[in-house]
């Protein structure tokens, strides 16, 4: 899934920024700037993933309800009419 790949990228970047902050390689202002930026990206991607999950669950439900009757060849044959 494309969003999952996109989701990992800002997470890795955020982890890198946190590591630099812990090691004292960047100051607090720089850390806060990038923490907010990557945190925002992560939140947006999480929302997109949740929407896709709901869509997938809905699609799966539709398939579950309708695929069974379509696979019952005998039933289809019995209900079929000739023109």
- Biggest sheet statistics: none
Number of domains: 1
N to C succession of SSEs: HHH
- Shape annotation: rod-shaped
Helical stretch tally: 3
Radius of gyration: 24 Å
Counting helices, strands and paired strands, the structural category is mainly alpha
Q: Level of helix content?
A: over 70%
The fraction of residues in strands falls at under 5%
> Average pLDDT value?
83
> How many distinct beta strands?
0
Distance N terminus to C terminus? 45 Å
Residue runs with pLDDT of under 50 for 5 or more positions: none
Walk me through what this model shows:
The protein has 83 residues and is mainly alpha-helical. The protein has one domain (2-79). It contains 3 helices and no strands. It has helices at 2-22, 28-71, 73-79. The chain is rod-shaped, with a radius of gyration of 24 Å. The chain starts with a helix and ends with a helix. The model has no long low-confidence stretch (mean pLDDT 83).
State the main characteristics.
mainly alpha; 83 residues; 3 helices
Produce a short descriptive summary.
This protein is mainly alpha-helical. It has helices at residues 2-22, 28-71, 73-79. The chain has three helices and no strands.
């Amino acid at each position: 899934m494309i969003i999952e790949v996109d989701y990992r990228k800002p997470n890795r970047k955020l982890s890198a920024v946190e590591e630099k902050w812990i090691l004292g390689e960047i100051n607090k202002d720089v850390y806060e700037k990038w923490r907010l930026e990557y945190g925002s990206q992560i939140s947006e991607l999480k929302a997109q993933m949740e929407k896709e999950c709901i869509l997938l669950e809905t699609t799966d439900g539709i398939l579950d309800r309708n695929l069974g009757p379509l696979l019952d060849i005998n039933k289809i044959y019995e209900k079929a009419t000739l023109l």
